[in-house]
Specification:
The structure is a single chain. The protein has 4 domains: about 60 residues; about 80 residues, OB fold (Dihydrolipoamide Acetyltransferase, E2P), CATH 2.40.50; about 80 residues, OB fold (Dihydrolipoamide Acetyltransferase, E2P) (Beta Barrel), CATH 2.40.50; about 80 residues, Beta Barrel (OB fold (Dihydrolipoamide Acetyltransferase, E2P)). Helix content is about 15%, strand content about 35%. The protein has 3 helices and 18 strands.
Length: about 350
């Protein structure tokens, strides 16, 4: 691209039209000058020459005006050749992943890129999260950009008026949903997350599910929520989900119970054959089963006899666990807190 064309493309749109008209006028009057100087044509021929010249330029100008377009958008990604924009919303995202399903591609391989210097990070480059203006035309079904401009400061990834939360949807009650914000996956034990549930009013929420899928809120799905807090309530405005129901419990999770023989260093040893009182002082030690407690939620209730809520020898416990690399990995350990007495 020559320097004159680059300068022209950098001009604001409202000054470019004046330049086009001036050049058009100069070119349109050229046949008149030539005819007068050479006297090679009659006045009628000169008139026809002007008419033909004007007609040709009018057609060209009309075609030029029809082809060139202008649009604004939010930049998802850009390299040396292709830029992807959200042209429906050039500003901050209203919810996570907004616009990713409607990205529009622009060929920028021959475009003039005019991005102002960012005052914060001092980078004048085309990049993700910018809001840009684009001059382009369509050719062979592609958007060919000629000029891309932007202020340079990145747009906030999410509208600051909103907050976000995500988690496992525990239940739906009328216009309210309850989510577990700490564990987005399978439940480690029955009722997990109910004691820490976040509640959202979804009466005004827009649902964003994969195309072709029924947009329905139901227990067991993973959700991303954009919301505002009003009068102490979480008001959801956008909910994004893939709609897939997660198995409430891990597919390979198992259950057992047993008598706690010993604990230490995140390991618990159980007698899983007899979870009750010992018949001999060392009963079960020769058949002890080890459980790794490093991933376990441990819930020991307070008994009438003691306030001790620690996992300890003498308790009968129920255990949820899975097997990994030949080891029993406990996910949940529960006991009523009452120590089992030895039999006489």
């Amino acid at each position: 691209m020559n320097r004159e064309k680059q300068i022209f493309l950098r001009m604001p749109p409202w000054t470019r039209s004046s330049k086009i008209l001036l050049e058009f006028h100069a070119e349109a009057t050229e046949p008149v000058k030539k005819a007068v100087d050479t006297n090679s044509e009659s006045p009628s021929a000169v008139s026809e020459s002007i008419k033909d010249s004007n007609s040709g330029h009018s057609s060209s100008a009309s075609e030029h005006s029809k082809e060139n377009k202008h649009i604004s958008g939010y930049v998802f990604s850009a390299d040396e050749n292709i830029m992807y924009l959200d042209t429906e919303n050039p500003g901050p995202r209203k919810y996570p992943h907004e616009g990713e399903d409607r990205q529009v591609a622009f060929d920028i391989s021959n475009a003039v890129i005019d991005i102002e210097n960012d005052p914060v990070i001092n980078i004048p480059t085309l990049r993700t999260s910018l809001s840009v203006d684009v001059d382009y035309f369509e050719k062979d079904g592609k958007n060919i950009a000629t000029y891309v401009s932007g202020y340079g400061a990145e747009v906030a990834p999410l509208d600051p008026a909103f907050s976000t939360a995500n988690g496992y949807l525990l239940k739906v009650e009328d216009n309210l949903i309850y989510i577990d914000p700490l564990n987005r996956g399978s439940r480690k034990y029955h009722g997990e997350g109910e004691d820490r549930a976040m509640i959202f009013d979804v009466s005004k929420a827009e649902l964003h599910f994969p195309e072709g899928m029924d947009a329905k809120l139901q227990a067991g799905i993973d959700v991303d929520i954009t919301y505002q807090i009003k009068n102490g309530k979480n008001i959801a405005f956008h909910i994004v989900s893939d709609g897939k129901v997660i198995n409430p419990h891990a597919a390979d999770e198992q259950q057992t119970s047993g008598f706690v023989l010993n604990t230490g260093d995140n390991i618990m040893y159980l007698d899983t054959e007899n979870s009750g009182a010992r018949t001999t002082p060392n009963e079960g030690e020769d058949r002890a089963v080890a459980f790794d407690l490093s991933e376990a939620d441990i819930e020991i209730e307070r008994s009438e006899l003691t306030d001790n809520r620690n996992l300890r020898p003498g308790l009968c416990v129920n255990v949820s666990y899975y097997v990994r690399d030949g080891k029993n990995i406990a996910t949940y350990v529960h006991s009523d807190g009452v120590e089992v007495e030895a039999k006489n």
